[in-house]
Every structure is written in C-alpha cells, then in structure tokens.
Design a protein that fits this description.
single chain; 503 residues; alpha+beta; seven-stranded mixed β-sheet; seven-stranded antiparallel β-sheet; 21 strands; globular; binds dihydroflavine-adenine dinucleotide
C-alpha cells in the first residue's frame, strides 16, 4: 500500500467537482481529482470515442452485459437494447427497487451522457427550495458565471422554424398550443451552430445521428471541453481515473485519509491504496457522495455526521411519456437528439409541470411525440446503510411516485383532448403510459443547511465539503446541472475566502 498526499482532493469530475477543482487550481492550491470512470478521449477501432445509441457496444454502459435504455420497447418488442461486453462504459443505471437512477461515469460525469439542456430555474421556485440562499447573488452573479463557463447557447429562432431537425418539436408545440399551453426555448450546451452544419451535411453527425445517452462524438460542450481543461490549465489540478473512493477517515492531525480502489477496464479491482488530504470535497453526485458519508457515519469512521446525511432525496419529479400522433402529423425521420423546446406549465397552481419535448431519434417515422416531464412531487426518499453489501440503499416506493404521474396526466390529458390523440402504451416494457420508475435527475441526500452549513461545509467535520447535486433538496423544477454548477460556484468562492486563503 502506498499513501500519497494532496493538499486538496475532489472526489468525482461532474459539475460540482469540476467547478471546485477549477477555482482551487486558480487559487494555486494543488488539487487531485479522483474519478471512478475513464477518460473519454481516444477513438476506438470504428474511429469514434463513443458508441452511439442505435448500435451500442461495450462503451455504452458501466459494467453491464446488456444495455438498459430508458425506452424499453416499441410495439412491446425489445428492439432497443443489445447484449454487450462488460466494460467501464459511460452510462450507469443504479437500481434501487422501485427507482432506477441513471448517472454518467467518466471524466465529466453526467455531462458526458446528458441532453445538454441548460435551464435556469424560475426564481420564485429557487427561493422556495433553497430559501436560505441569497437569490439576488445567485441570479446576479453565479447563474451568469456558470452559464458563461459552461458555454450555454441559444437556438436561432428563425432556423428553428424551418429546419428538419426540430420538426418533432414544432409538432408538439402545435399540439400544446391547441390545448392553450405555452412553450419556451431551452438553452443548451450543445453547439447549435454545429447542429446546423450537421443538418447541412458539412460535418459529421452527432445530435442528428441519435447520439445522446451513450455520449456525443461531436458538438457537445461537456465538462471535458469546458471546466476541466481550464482546471488542468492552471497547472495545479490532476485527474486520476478508474479510481473509486470507498472510505473516508479523519486523522488525529485533522487531515483525511481515503481508501481508494484502482479498477481495470472491466471493473476488476487491481489495487487498493490510500490518499491523504487536508481539504476534501465530495463531488461524486447525489448517489455517490451520499453513500460515502452514510458509510462513513454508519461504520464509525466519521461518527459526528448528523442525522440529515441520507435524507431528503428526490427525483426532480421525472416522468417520461409518449403520445400517439395522427398519421398526417409526422415528426420527421431526422430528429435532433438535443431537445430545444419545453412546455412551460410550471405556474399551474395545481400541477406544476415543465415538459421537455424529447426526440425519438430512431431514424424512421414512428408517429410518437415523446416528453420528459419535470413535476413538483413533494415526496422524498431516504438512504440507509446496508452492512452486508457495504452500500447505501435508497428507499423510494411506487406510491411516492404517484404525484408525478398525476401532474403529468393532468397536463397531457389536456393536450390529448385538444388534439383527439391518445397515449402510447407500448414504450415502457408493459402497457403503462407513464414511466416514472427511473430518474435522470437524482437530487439531495446531503442537503444544504441540513447535512452541511449554508456553503456546503459538512456539519461535524472541518475542511470536509459537499459540492454536487446532493446539496439540492430533491427538486429544482427544471433540468438541474445549471443549478448545481451555480451553487458550486457560490460555495467555493466563500470556502476559498474563509477556509483556504486565511493565513
Ligand atoms: P455527476 O453525477 O455529474 O458526477 C459525479 C461523478 O463522480 C461521476 O463521474 C462518477 O463516476 C463519479 N463518482 C461517483 N462515485 C465515485 C466514487 N466513489 N469515487 C470516484 N468517483 C465517483 N441535466 C440537465 O441539466 N440537463 C439535461 O439535459 C440533462 N439530461 C440528462 C440525461 C441523462 C441521460 C442523465 C443521466 C442525466 C441528465 N441530466 C441533465 C442530469 C445531470 O447530468 C446531473 O444532474 C448532473 O450530472 C449531476 O452533477 P453532479 O455534480 O451532482 O454529479
């Protein structure tokens, strides 16, 4: 066993982690990032880094032998999933009984696999979920800072009206309009200019080649194109990949000692080592960071952690559904994998819903309008530690998911009534029209002001911080990565000033 030491360690390389590492590096603090996934920068035999969605191979999923795409079937036939070799692929699906959580694995975390929708929450809702955070500061300083560093861009509305890539979105807008609903453009970190050139046939296709959840070979400004190279460019940040943190110990001298596993390409543990640090930042995502602290508390490694560790987890009210279109209402065979429009019914007093108009990027006309809706579900799950498997177990029941379905049904019953359409019942494995047994937006577990102070400092342990989606209490009302990024910017600025730069 060897023990290395780094003044600061950041666990993970997703949004919270990348922000934190950049700002630590700029402040001159040597920082080591530890990421269990791999670095995605080397083309395989087919010339591509990622495998795409229509013919997924071992690069698609984290240590699985069959892909597990969110759309289970079409006409009840499992046409979507494929057998694959076990490999340290880019998308993981973590199953917890009635809830499965999708997460990205690799340098860039969720940014490698997500839909690039870069949405700032409604201010009144942000104030409702995080009342102790100064909203003037967030909307004046940190949301703009995050948006600029993430490379958020907006679609050209004129091009949108005539392009082939978003015919599906224009159709859904028409249907929403008939029901008296309004739609709004969704900012993105996918380069809309690149997309336009894809449609013109000038560049290799990515969003137009159905690439999303197993990685984009082009066009997307994922964190490995934005925050992370900037962090490495400070000369103070290094990233160690295929390195999974398993345990956190507090030393008598106040430093932290991590136990880490080094993995090979197929996930075997090839070595176990230890890393010491003075300032430890958890950016392993809602599931990852929560599990690390829960394990530390329950095994007695960090006994002073409070009872809020593992509480207040939510799905951001995620639910997916499809509507069956009339034969004359075609969506087009070329569909951008990157959504650009949403139905904004968040101010509905009874059932707030923000519904992304999602592509069905199969390359053929399927007469389906697909949606990923975000609803305001007040239910929260919690985690317990399971000693037998040394892991965190999420407690979330099908009943807790019901408010999500009720809200989506209220909205889309309206859309169907206005258009004489019905739901699709063949998309999710059985005949259910609403799929809410998975989430793309896990949030909470180590909530700001509860498990931590108001800047992410873990209660009970100095120099230990949470930086990621686990700080947010289960809901943001929109896709969450802009909120996670902005909150991380806010917190690290304060922590640097008060905890690290102090003489
Ligand atoms: P994030 O999950 O990004 O990163 C955590 C990292 O830590 C991962 O790289 C993981 O491998 C690593 N890690 C975990 N445990 C570890 C350990 N023990 N040791 C070492 N490393 C460890 N959001 C949005 O705003 N717009 C969108 O369009 C979408 N679309 C979307 C699609 C899909 C398919 C998914 C899965 C998700 C989205 N999201 C999204 C959600 C968004 O990607 C998500 O909210 C953020 O990535 C969460 O950022 P975090 O910083 O919390 O961690």
């Amino acid at each position: 066993r060897r023990t290395d030491f780094s003044p600061a360690v950041v666990i993970g390389t997703g949004y919270g982690a990348a922000v934190t590492a950049l700002r630590l590096g700029e402040a001159g603090i040597p920082t080591l990032m530890l990421e269990m996934g791999r670095l995605w920068d080397t083309p395989a035999g087919d010339g591509n880094v990622f495998s795409g969605m229509l013919r997924p191979d071992r690069r698609s999923m984290w240590l699985k032998t069959r892909t597990e795409a969110p759309l289970a079937s079409f006409l009840w036939i499992d046409v979507v999933n494929r057998d694959i070799e076990r490999y340290t692929g880019v998308l993981d699906r973590v199953d917890h009984g009635d809830m499965s959580v999708y997460v990205g694995r690799g340098v860039g975390g969720g940014s490698l696999v997500n839909g690039a929708m870069a949405v700032t929450p409604k201010r009144h809702y942000f104030e409702e979920i995080l009342p102790s955070v100064d909203a003037d500061e967030m909307y004046g300083t940190y949301f703009p800072r995050a948006g600029a560093a993430l490379g958020v861009n907006h679609i050209d509305p004129e091009w949108f009206e005539t392009c082939r890539s978003y015919k599906y979105a224009r159709l859904s807008r028409k249907h929403a309009g008939k029901a008296g609903l309004t739609t709004t453009f969704v900012p993105s970190v996918y380069d809309f200019d690149y997309l336009r050139r894809e449609e013109a046939g000038d560049v290799p296709r990515s969003a137009l080649a159905s690439e999303v959840i197993y990685g984009n070979n082009h066009g997307k400004r994922s964190l490995d194109k934005t925050y992370l190279p900037a962090a490495l460019g400070t000369g103070n940040v290094t990233i160690r990949t295929l390195t999974e943190v398993r345990a956190i110990h507090h030393q008598p001298d106040g430093t932290y000692r991590l136990t880490v596993r080094e993995l090979d390409d197929v996930g075997n543990v090839v070595a176990t080592s230890e890393i010491g640090t003075r300032h430890l930042f958890l950016g392993a995502g809602s599931l990852g960071s929560t599990e690390l602290l829960l394990r530390a508390r329950e095994t007695g490694a960090l006994p002073e952690l409070n009872d809020e560790v593992g509480q207040c987890w939510g799905t951001n009210g995620n639910v997916m559904l499809g509507r069956a279109n009339h034969v004359w209402d075609t969506t087009g065979t070329v569909q951008s994998g990157m959504p650009a429009l949403g139905i904004d019914a968040w101010d509905d007093p009874e059932h707030p819903v923000f519904a992304e108009i999602a592509p069905m990027p199969a390359g053929l006309e399927l007469w389906v309008s697909l949606y990923l809706a975000i609803t305001k579900n007040p239910e929260r799950g919690h985690f317990t530690y399971d000693a037998a498997t040394d892991s965190a177990r999420l407690h979330w029941t099908a009943e807790q998911g019901q408010p999500t379905i009720d809200a989506a049904k209220a909205l889309f019953d309206r859309v169907n009534r206005a258009n004489g359409t019905i739901y699709r019942h063949d998309l999710f494995g059985d005949t259910r029209p609403f799929e809410n047994r998975f989430t793309y937006h896990p949030l909470g577990g180590l909530v700001l002001g509860k498990a931590t102070d108001l800047y992410g400092r873990v209660r009970g342990y100095p120099n230990l911080y949470v930086t990621d989606g686990s700080l947010i209490p289960g809901s943001t009302g929109v896709n969450p990565f802009v909120t996670i990024t902005a909150l991380a910017e806010r917190n690290i600025e304060r922590v640097l000033a008060e905890d690290l730069r102090r003489p």
